[in-house]
Amino acid sequence: MLEKIRENLEKLNEKMEVMIELQKHGRKDFQPLPEAPLDVMTLLSMPDHLRKTAMTVCRLGRATAEEIAQQTHRARAVESAYLNQLVIMGYLKKERKGRKAYFYVEREGQG
Amino acid sequence: MSMGKIIAVHSYKGGTGKTLISVNLAAILVRHGRKVCLLDLDFRAPSLSTVLKIEKAEYWLNDYLNGTCEIDKVLIDLSDRIQNKCKFFVGLANPTTEAIRDMTAKDRKWEMRALGRLLALRNSLLNDKAFDYLIFDTSPGLQYSSINAIVSADLILVATTLDRSDADGTRRMLRELYDLFEKKTEIVLNKVLQDVSPKSGKEEAQAKIKDLYHVPLLGVIPCFCDVLRWKGNAIFVQERPEHPLAKILNEIASKIDNDIT
After folding, report:
1. Which residues of A touch B111 (CB under 8 A)?
2. Can you give the pLDDT of all 261 residues of chain B as single tens digits?
3. Do A40 and B147 touch (CB under 8 A)?
4. Under CATH, which number does the domain A2-104 receive?
5. Considering the entire predicted model, what is its pTM?
6. Which domains does chain B have, with CATH numbers?
7. In what order do the strands lie in the sheet with A100-104?
C-alpha cells in the first residue's frame, strides 16, 4: 500500500517537473516535438546545462535520472527535469520499467 | 570500469602531423608493453593503409560505422611489426574515392548512429578485449567524424604549428569545441624552427603556449628536413630509433602513459 502511494507520488512529481520546465520556457502546448537526431552538431548547439545531461546519456547508453545525477554531480531532481526536457525536444526516449524511468537515445537500425 | 584510455589526435588545419604523431605514439606505447589499437577515422583522406603498407583489408572502419560488421572483423594484427611483447592492432579507413564520396554524403541520423558505434568501442575494445589504448587519427577541422571521435575520447591531443591561421583556428576550437565537451586537451607544437625554440627556452615556450591556449603543452617537435625527406614511410620510430624526433616522441608517449596510469 505504502509502496503504491510512493510510486504514484513519484509519477506525480515527475509530471510536475515536466510542467514546470515547460512553463519556464513559456510553451503552452504539451505536444512533444517530433523525434530529432541527437548528433554531435546538435550537442554542440545545446545550452551547457542540457549538453552535460545529453552527453552523459550518450555515454551511458541508457540510464535513470539517479544514474545521470551520479555522473554529473547535480541533484536528481535537476537531472530529471533536464532529461524530461530533452524528451520533449525529441532527442531522448523515455521508458518506464516498474518504478524506474529509463532515458536513452533512439538509434534504430543499429546492430 | 575499464582502465584503458581513448586518445583522439586532432588539429584545426591539415598537415600538422596528426598521422605521424598517432602512428608513432601507438608504436611507442606498444614497445612500452601496452596493448594498443590505432584507428584511422580520417575518412576524407585515409592514410594509415599507405603508411603501414597494408594493400587491402577485408573490412574497413567504414563498414563498422555503417553497422554491417563488428569491430573484430576490421582490426588487423600488426604485432609482429614491432619487436616486443605486446599487441598492436589497426583499423583502416577505406581509401577508395567511392568510399570517401559515400562517407561525405551521410546525414545527421547516420552520424548519430556512428557516434553510438564509436562510443560502443569503449566496451568492446577497452573492457572486453582489454586494450590499454585506442588511438584515433582524425580529419582536421570541424568534421562530423572528428567531432564524433572527440566526444568518444578521454584525451585530445591537438597538433598545431606556429602558423597564424592554424593558431587562431586552434584557439577557437579549444574554446568552442573541446571546452564545450569538457575534454582533457593537450597541445603538441609541431614544425618549430630550431632558432625559435632553443633548449634553454623550453620553459618560456611552455608559458607562452599556456598563455595562448590555456591548456598544457605536451611536447615541442622541431622542424626536421630529414623527416620530410622520409615522406611518411612506415613507422618512423621503428626505423630511426636514434633520431632526435624519436626521442621527442618517446618523451610525449611517456608523459601520456605516466599521466594516465
Report:
1. 37, 39-41
2. 458 999 999 999 999 999 999 999 999 999 999 999 999 999 999 999 999 999 889 999 999 999 999 999 999 999 988 877 789 999 999 999 999 999 999 999 999 999 999 999 999 999 999 999 999 999 999 999 999 999 999 999 999 998 999 999 999 999 999 999 999 999 999 998 876 555 556 777 778 888 889 898 999 999 988 888 777 778 999 889 999 999 999 999 999 998 765
3. yes
4. 1.10.10.10
5. 0.87
6. 5-260 (3.40.50.300)
7. A62-63, A100-104, A93-97
- Tell me the domain boundaries of chain A: 2-104
**DSSP code at position A91:** S
Is residue B56 less than 8 Å (CB to CB) from chain A? no
C-beta of residue B137 within 8 angstroms of C-beta of residue B19 = yes
Tell me the nearest-neighbour CA distance from A28 into chain B, angstroms: 29
Are the C-beta atoms of B16 and B160 separated by less than 8 Å? yes
